[in-house]
Amino acid sequence: MHTGGEAVRIVTGGYPVVHGATILAKRRYAKEHLDHLCRFLMLEPRGHSDMYGVIPVAPDHPDADLAVLFCHNEGYATMCGHATIAVARWAVDEGLVEPEGRAATVRVQCPCGLVVATVQMGEDGETGPVHFDSVAAFVAHPDAEIEVEGVGPVEVDVAYGGAFYAILPASRFGLKLGKSSVRELVDAAWAVTGATKAQLELSHPEHPDLGFLYGTILTDGALGDDRPSANVCVFADRQVDRSPCGSGVTARMAVQVAKGETAVGEPCRFSSLTGSVFSAEVVGETAAGEGVGGQAGRSVTVRVGGQAYYTGEARFRAEEGDPLAGGFSLR
Hints:
The protein is α+β, with helices and mostly antiparallel strands. It is built from five helices and 19 strands. The chain has a 16-stranded mixed β-sheet that branches. The longest helix is centred in the middle third of the chain and has 18 residues, at about 180-200. The two termini are about 25 Å apart.
């Protein structure tokens, strides 16, 4: 499948059991024991450096309908919004979750926590657009100054939307989304990721496995209130998100609400390099002491919406004697 142009390769069979008592333990087990299969599915010659995958696993959350691991060119994400949108639609189409009337509720256990998705149903029972309510999102470092090699001091916001992102306008590098080359945008974002990792400390109050910077989001500097605000997310090993990035949009909304730029309940829209658009709206807010992380414990729940589409089916194998069967990347 794809959501906004971003690939979602869902494993439907042939994968070994991923052991672990919790979803984060399963993520660690996959990293330590099954990473060769991640490379096999994501990288060339079966995939490419920007491929994205979903591995369904047994849930341990009592309310979950299904659980998933997210994989990419570097390893395993803690959250992925575009993949959640696709997986929710797929789960209904596969009969894993039954709709009720004109909608189906799909409770997906992700490594970051339980994410509740709603799949809209057409009159003939066909599945359509999906929205999901995020885990608690918060700002970890507002207006933090980092030193970027070759550029100098740069101000970023670091926020969590199921994963941590550094967020800043592309204009701080003299770049413009839609005008500058993808290579220029990736190089700038990658430099910010490296500097942020080296100079800012990140932690998550629920689990240490969640406390790492996943990527950098370059924006057009707008808020997405009157028109879609363009952004590009560069994550993992210089991987470029073709969608607006669901967890990144969640983090952006957390920043905008924390700064008083967007009100709770105010709808916004965000677009990607492909022109695809996600909707976003803060639908819940917790005060100090009630939520996780953020400024004085303040966190928000963000509802993100988009549309996933099917692209095909495939069976992959490794032929005996193939020296490149394990996967490779020329990047």
